[in-house]
Amino acid sequence: MPPTLYYHPFASFCQKVLIALYENGTPFEPRLIDLGDPASRAELTSVWPLAKFPVLRDVERDVIVPESSLIIDYLGRHYPGPCKLIPADPEEAMRVHLWDRLFDNYVANQVTKIVTDHFRPQGRRDPDGVEQAKAMIATAYALIERDLPPGGWACGDGFTLADCAAAPALFYANIAVPFAEHPKLVAYYERLCARPSFARVIDEARPYRKPFPLGWPASYA
């Protein structure tokens, strides 16, 4: 029995795991979760009480794995495929994990802060927090632009966990804080969008775009 992934196609951290699964053609049982639906939310909570996705449930090994980076690490160890997303060499792996944390914490999580603020009622919004999040993203862009290789992927020639994190993070961040002034980052993002695994993720998320409060640039049609 393949593992079950509890996820939503529009959520960036779920997309990160989907990219990893598609890269290696890993079989899995999809369980789409709608947090706004009480029954669907209860299903997720029964597996992971914090009600955060993605979550991987591997019945064969009696294991529940939350958090996107941990899931990808778990898949690499127990369901390996041709694309090794975390290098065996400890020093190379540390660099991949560093970039993964950079894209998750300083890009994706900051976008979440900006988007979440749009759904707060008047009087409870946090404009200072939104500006801080945008500033953090801008700082991350500058760091990424400085350290990105001129071609290939985030950590060199091989597609890794870092790129799984980068693709959805940059997809949403470019709407909140455009990065057009960073040429290496733009070129890297174009390579990510051309990657079949991420192109598939984008297509699968397309039907869920309507509630997104930041709008959609014409280039995202």
Describe the structure.
This protein has 221 residues and is an alpha+beta fold. It has two domains: 4-78, Glutaredoxin; 90-205, Glutathione S-transferase Yfyf (Class Pi), Chain A, domain 2, CATH 1.20.1050. The chain has helices spanning 12-24, 38-47, 68-78, 90-118, 127-147, 161-176, 183-194, 196-205, and strands at residues 4-7, 29-32, 55-58, 63-66. It has a four-stranded mixed beta sheet, sandwiched between helices. The longest helix has 29 residues, at 90-118. The chain starts with a strand and ends in a 16-residue tail after the last helix.
Which keywords apply here?
221 residues, alpha+beta, Glutathione S-transferase Yfyf (Class Pi), Chain A, domain 2, 55% helix, 7% strand, globular
Name the shape in a single word: globular
List the secondary-structure elements in sequence, H or E: EHEHEEHHHHHH
Mean pLDDT: 96
Query: What is the count of helical runs?
Result: 8
- Cα(first) to Cα(last) distance is 37 Å
The number of distinct structural domains comes to 2
Radius of gyration: 17 Å
The appropriate CATH architecture of the largest domain is: Up-down Bundle
Instruction: Enumerate the strands of the largest sheet in spatial order, edge to edge or round the barrel.
Output: 2-1-3-4
Name of the CATH first level of the largest domain:
Mainly Alpha
* Major β-sheet profile: 4 strands, mixed
Strand content: 5-15%
Uncertain stretches: none
What is the count of β-strands?
4
User: How is the CATH topology of the largest domain named?
Assistant: Glutathione S-transferase Yfyf (Class Pi), Chain A, domain 2
Helix content: 55-70%
Helix/strand-derived class? Answer: alpha+beta
